Amino acid sequence: MEETYLALGSKILEEGHVKEDRTGTGTRSIFGYQMRFDLAQGFPLLTTKRVPFGLIKSELLWFLNGDTNIRYLLQHNNHIWDEWAFERYIKSDDYQGPDMTDFGHRVLIDETFKENYQLEHKRFCEKILTDDVFAAKYGELGNIYGAQWRHWEKKDGGFIDQIKNVIEMIKSTPDSRRLIVSAWNPEDVPSMALPPCHTMFQFYVNDGKLSCQLYQRSGDVFLGVPFNIASYALLTHLIAHETGLEVGDFVHTLGDAHLYANHIDQMKEQLSRDVRSFPKIKLNQEKKSVFEFDMEDIVIEGYDPHPAIKAPIAV
């Protein structure tokens, strides 16, 4: 099943359109691609490079908790959302340190700047963890995934818990064609640190199995998409567990699927590696609700990947 992801990487390298992008890094891009993973055949955690499953778990549980502040992530040594919060901080009047403008690019070419950045970033994270007021102000990312999934604000007041609602619909009306959760709220997009890349997902029940299709408007194929595959596969497992279903397929539909210009060599290296068997996932059977799960309740067994391949994140 991993071959469908590798085929995407190969297709972009061979056919991708060279495009400018928001980050200024530059990309090779194609539009419209679909991958399918049979979750009964193994958990789709890529083996051609190590993908850190602990980060995927903590991020998904963060979303499911309706949380939008990076403090929870930092408490679990998860730094994948740091840059967006840090960027907001350095642009504020409260920041009095050295110039951090365009830190995502400068850190790659200037060793002295990299040292300063690492020091300021470390101070920022420590303050998020230890200072409640600072964390509330600068750890907050706006109405991103957790807020839209669990606390979609209604025009007439109150909130919609989309995750809770879709679980109840799967239990009561499994043949419904409205088993949908959306993260794309046009009113909130301007206030988000990063508008949702994975914009909506839909569930489908057949023959006692739960399948999920994700529509992702924008996919960072080397760094982000492997996380997205595993995250939504895990979400499907968790919801299937609560609703008493087996897992079916995870279908991943991408809009703008791209490789950043500084990920090209890394993708080529990954494509040169042989594919290994996907691992299995084990859930704590004593936990009945999606919202009861903690990190230790989700375990991957038999994961034997090739080594990780480092690449810079585009902010």
From TrEMBL:
Listed A to Z, the keywords are: Cytoplasm, Methyltransferase, Nucleotide biosynthesis, Transferase
Q: Which residues form the active site?
A: C197
One GO MF term on file is: thymidylate synthase activity
**InterPro entries, per database record:** Thymidate_synth/dCMP_Mease, Thymidate_synth/dCMP_Mease_dom, Thymidate_synth/dCMP_Mease_sf, Thymidylate_synthase, Thymidylate_synthase_AS
Top enzyme class, one word, equals transferase
Family under the similarity heading: Belongs to the thymidylate synthase family.
> Can you say what this protein is called?
Thymidylate synthase
Origin organism lineage: Eukaryota, Metazoa, Ecdysozoa, Arthropoda, Hexapoda
